[in-house]
Queue: 3 jobs
Job 1
Amino acid sequence: MNRRVVVTGIGVAAPGGIGAEKFWKLISTGTTATRPLSLFNAAGYRSRVAAEIDFDPDLHGLTPLQIRRMDRAGQLALVCLREALADSGIEIADELALRTGVSVGSAVGASTSLDREYSVVSDSGRDWLVGHHNAVPHLFEYMVPVRFAADLAREVSAQGPVSLVSTGCTSGLDAVGNAYELIREGSADVMLAGATDAPITPITVACFDAIGATTSNNADPQHASRPFDLNRDGFVLGEGACMLILEEREAARRRGAHVYGEISGFATRSNAFHMTGLKPDGREMAEAIVHALAQARVNADEIDYINAHGSGTKQNDRHETAAFKRSLLDHAYRTPISSIKSMIGHSLGAIGSIELSACLLAIENGVVPPTANLETPDPECDLDYVPRTARERRLRRVLSVGSGFGGFQSAVVLSEPGADA
């Protein structure tokens, strides 16, 4: 079975605002949402810049019980799911509930709540031996990130395949890719797919400080995320979530659903090389791109836009540039490429799904989002990285890629509604 899969609903929570409309306005105008870290006292940390969400769960309809039990990342995912369902207009009930699944990506799970609760049970780290007596009764739920997926399934009584994908920074792409494959093979008719992470916590910031992956440009937070710029010095840690409604294409057509685009190809590879290191030739990412294009039956010269991983680390941006040249050959030089991490930071496992929503909205609006803060291009990153200003362009086929610690490389091909892929 080889069924076609379309996206009919989008829900986004990203720095700069909750909701797909606010998200699109921010990234299409090249506005940055990076700022001094404020979710905890970051004095003494190497990197004190973050891309935070101003989020009040009360204002977004969460109940007191949900606010008490759910980690911040779970709350963001729930808000996104509700927006995506309303956007799609789909009703999941009766027999359809049995054919509806959930696929959620997360790199660091309920790290916000685990960090907070460890501080409680250890008296802010004073006690080496800790007990459960002062912890919340649902502490165990924070340790098992699949709880995110289970909570979303319970929200709509989805009784199909439910899973949590955790492949580092490619989790958001891989979770949607997993959902795509389940519909494609006939294991589900509808999938609620996306990712969420709220990693701006003391322990997570310390982890990235330790390996020097994040920016130390604390004096200029708004311009600290500089993918493909000669003066870049690491990524800005962010938070966020995105949920998409995926449907089998013919069923979506029958119910008259609005279709943002079709997922026409997905592939993932590992470099089996190093936890954080990347080979300069970009071979593994290129392999993922080539296989995603082959599955989509799309030639390299048919790609109209590439949403880059574009983290803003020296080696990643050069690795990606090499991968695009290796997979798209001469067409890589003619293709607009951009990184929205320049505006909303890097929300780890969530970013891949957020970037897919950016691609779908770019197709819908005929606009390529820019790479903000790209002032002095790195000569080794010599492709068209759309500096600072968006461009109007019809986008028939779009490629989105991700690169994750552990050596993971993933690629997704999206097509304009009605395109023969």
Job 2
Amino acid sequence: MRPDIPASAEYSIGEPNKPAVLLLHGFLQTRDFHTVTTLARGLQDAGYTVLSPTLSLNIPNRVQSLACEAVHKHSLDDDVAEIGHWVSWLKAHGHHSIVLVGHSFGSLQLLAYLSLKPDAAVKGYIGASLIEAQIGTAKRPALITQLEGRVLGKQRALVNQSLSFCRKYPSTPEGLLSYVRWDQPRLLAALKQSPVSVMLIMGDRDTIVERGWIRALEHVQIPMVIVKGANHFMDGAHEFDLLEYTLKSLERIHQAPSR
């Protein structure tokens, strides 16, 4: 991915007439996270080619989830670059119709990729349990100003800030800033401006997303399915709902006119 940073993915070849799925895990996790592995198996059984990478997070050949208290020297820019590498890898292996599917923070990272002139082979996006970069009780504008000042001043000291499910997340100012900038308004804008077909799959019992988030998505009329009783991880019986709606969305994207 970068010098001395190799990364890996699981690749399962499906039927040639169906789009390939690039399936991305959530925050600090790997492709072995249960929501992702269950969905990958279901998609494979349905005949789809599935590529499930593990983002390196600047750790060579990373195979384990990264602890909150670890020193984080990765950035959203790195994540987006890696997504681009995997899209190119799929194209190089003969896949010219690709759908991006993410869970949780992976859905955010895929949207960030889509906001930067995605490859023409990417035909659609499906985001499950889409969530913004949460920062606890901190005031986002003040935090952004503080981090921008550190970056401009070339200050190298780590910043320990709440991010996502991590109460303490030690990171470089540049890396942290790249994530913190992705709040709910930026996500909504990225969804509305997406160059490809969009579908969200959300659970109405998701206690991890901010209150009012699903209502905000409904207000701007983002295409969305709400799974009754499902939590953030779509586990238990709801893993079948996640698979069903993902398959329906893939079929709809596959049948849509090419961009």
Job 3
Amino acid sequence: MPKILITAAGSYGDIAPYTGLGARLRTAGHEVALATHDSYASLVRAAGLEFRRLPADPRTRHAATADTRNPGDTRNPGGTRDTATPDRPSGPGRNRDLMRQAAAFIKELGGGLTAAAREDTGLLLLSATTAPLGHHLAEARGIPFLDLPLVPGAPTGDFAPVVSGGRSLGRWGNRAAGRLSLRIIDRLYADAARELRTRLGLPPATPRTVRRRAEAAGRPVLHGFSEVLVPRPTDWRPGLDVVGNWWPWHAPDAQLPPAVEDFLAAGPPPVFIGFGSMAGGEGERLSTLVAAALRRARLRGILQSGWAGLSAGHTSADADLLTIGEVPHALLFPRMAAVVHHCGAGTAAAGVRAGVPTVPVPVTADQPFWAARLASLGVATAPIPFQELSGDRAVARLSHALTQATAAPARRDHARTAAHRLAAEDGAAKVLKAVTHLTETEHPAN
């Protein structure tokens, strides 16, 4: 049986779903390696997968430069971590800088991807960030591949590109914007693709040419999100499928830390607040703001530190606040009264899965898209854009949203209904079926 190599790059939310998927494939008898950044080596190995290193670790870059977002984020290859923050520079010059940062990230990634795909690789499973590079590698070495993005990327009239803010431009406008979005991605990958093809001994071909070849061949693309949140677009070609979420791996016997259990037992269900890999350098301000909003709403809270550095230590040592690090959302979220987060694809889905209301605070990239989806499903309050969590009314606005999320029975009922629908899906099983078909077709002797 050929070895499967999963490749994924970006922040935690871009990597973790593939650990659960890889573990499922391993349980079915496949040998699986996951190529990603050093920061996630322990996560990969804990899931029972072989770790292979990819360069351009965003956590290292974050530590060195706290005011820029990971430029290799699959949801926004050229975006800033906090473009919404009012005192940060923006405009054409800033955007050009971000595009250069993203292109440099991608170029570095290309070399690492080639090294990760050793001679034992019989099948490539590619994330949205690694796919435009992985296609060249597959072509050069004759390796079958499958694209497994976590967000919708193909143009459609049903909605605008996920990085455009979630506002529909009409069917024609949505499709036009979707095509433009693909051209921008092609441009970001152009230099890296040219170098990679030269290194692999391939004839020149632009990212657009390679992408169109895959489209013309009807290559399957399995999207790792749920139709509960995003129904499959009506105008997508055959082969573009929405299969359901792949959930981050955690040990079957995993439990919440004793300090968390003690906090939960000490009072009514709290509210979770976390911004994942967003809002770097904003920890003290956000912690003070969140603590004040929770007090006004008379709610307890659990602050997940994340890259922002949220901490109850930044506040007045409130006994109704607890600071935590990385904890499986699957264990924590069902115990919450509500969840407040940036609406990355994985965190948004985790809130729906838990059956609890959400207060969306989108920062950038695809996050406004997912925030709008949650609100339209009835499981979330109206989104509060991150840039609006500043100024004199920020505490009042967040407090009002917290009250809406926790005191409205209809919203919780909608959340439970959505969770029930999500529980009926098995996205990993559909990938396993596709992998089995590919391996039997491409490696019949095995």
